[in-house]
């Protein structure tokens, strides 16, 4: 069985677990405590960030997007695969553009907004405004369509929403007072879902060598 090193609250791990659950791919989940990573993860070498996946042949997938594309390639459920990652290159480029913006621009401001006291060069308000540039782009797009690519969920939505969830959680009251109604509706469709609450965000104790395997998703 492939092994997935994961950390429950990590947005990169959340997006990987969400896709794995949607596709019904089975893995053995190893919940990691970032401050005391297991030697099995450290001994893979290189950067020991989570999520990481090691497949049945021992091939390692060290980044969330590697894991997601591994799961898409493994899946027999071609209908869901095609919805998440359509064959059409224009659609693919759109998905990549949303993810790139999220990972390389928005994440930078999200970290500063979340931990504004660690980045005293600017105020929390300044960092929030930088992050809001993405929220307003998302909101504009979602005013015309249910999801980022259209009427169906795609990889773009799933790769991005865990980061928006974190941004919102910094100050939920502020977010509730904003005009980002479409983002609110879109985010709620994920975070209030059965999939998210009863599968993706289930709490598991930290993994220890020798313990009974944790099958994920647990069905
Ligand atoms: N680019 C990586 C980023 C993963 C990442 O930064 N994960 C964080 C947790 S949210 C982590 O493992 N931090 C601890 C570390 O880097 O050692 C991915 O897409 O998987």
Automatic annotation (TrEMBL):
One Gene Ontology MF term: transferase activity
Top-level taxon of origin: Bacteria
Cellular component GO terms, alphabetical: cytoplasm
Keywords: Transferase
Pfam families given in the database record: GST_C_2, GST_N_3
Keyword Signal assigned: no
Record-annotated GST C-terminal domain positions: 88-209
Transmembrane segments: none
Classification via InterPro entries: Glutathione-S-Trfase_C-like, Glutathione-S-Trfase_C_sf, Glutathione_S-Trfase, Glutathione_S-Trfase_N, GST_Omega/HSP26, Thioredoxin-like_sf
Protein's UniProt name: Glutathione S-transferase
